[in-house]
Amino acid sequence: MSKIIPQMIAEKIIIALDVPTIEAAFRLVDQIPQASFWKVGLELFLKAGHEVLPELKKQQKRIFLDLKLHDIPNTIAAACRILADYGVDLLTIHTTVGRSGLKAAQTALKESSQRLGIAPAKLLGVTLLTSFSPRELAFDLKIPLELPDYILQMALLAQKSSLDGVICSPQEAALIRQACGEDFLLVCPGIRLPSQKGKDDQQRTMTPQAAFQAGANYLVIGRPITQAPDPAQAFQELLTA
Ligand SMILES: O=C(O)c1cc(=O)[nH]c(=O)n1[C@@H]1O[C@H](COP(=O)(O)O)[C@@H](O)[C@H]1O
């Protein structure tokens, strides 16, 4: 029988609701009552964001709204003013929008939340998607930096632009933690057990334990839990492995 994971660890796991319907989303939420932090990404947001987000809040779940914004500063700021209404806990933007776009997003979020009298979402910059390999960075994107150095530069840009933290693979967490300090939030997708490695689009992965040891504050886990025959059991097993 698997061990029950301590609540303190369970609260640091964000489960990705990458499902196409509101019914499928709340089936998962009901199946794993110990999970308190859920991620709504593009798929579910586009289908039913205006229903899912208020319902998650009603159930007192914490919410990571992962829309990975990427646009010019004026458009991003306008989107952030609208998104602030949802009162989510975390929100993502691509760090490659650059310093003015990152600052515009953070300012718009803070001003709108203040107006609404709610805590602003913490804004996280996506450094480099965990589905990228070093080879793709060099040969497809033609970035003339080693992958860890590129990601470090993106994290430093996010920090200089007043973001609260970044999304990075756990493989880069220790490097970013050392450069950006203890208060900078590191949220890490790309979580796989050794037996699950190399079976899908995730390229830069680590186990949950190793990711926490590397300095991650939160882990984002999707398919290893949501596509398992028994999601609640998979949640327990992943964190006690
Ligand atoms: O921003 C994200 O959450 C994200 C960034 C990234 O670099 N890689 C990444 O996988 N994600 C998200 O994290 C989740 C990972 O899901 P699984 O690969 O199924 O565990 C997905 O919802 C992705 O959209």
TrEMBL record:
Its EC number is 4.1.1.23. The active site is at D66 (for ompdecase activity), K68 (proton donor), K68 (for ompdecase activity), D71 (for ompdecase activity). One of its GO terms (molecular function) is orotidine-5'-phosphate decarboxylase activity. PANTHER family: OROTIDINE 5'-PHOSPHATE DECARBOXYLASE (PTHR32119). This is Orotidine 5'-phosphate decarboxylase. GO terms for biological process: 'de novo' pyrimidine nucleobase biosynthetic process; 'de novo' UMP biosynthetic process. It comes from the Bacteria. The keyword S-adenosyl-L-methionine does not apply. Keywords: Decarboxylase, Lyase, Pyrimidine biosynthesis. One of its GO terms (cellular component) is cytosol. The lineage of its organism: Bacteria, Bacillati, Cyanobacteriota, Cyanophyceae, Acaryochloridales. It holds the Pfam family OMPdecase. It comes from Pseudocalidococcus azoricus BACA0444. It catalyses: orotidine 5'-phosphate + H(+) = UMP + CO2. Substrate binds at residues 18, 39, 66-75, 130, 192, 202, 222-223.
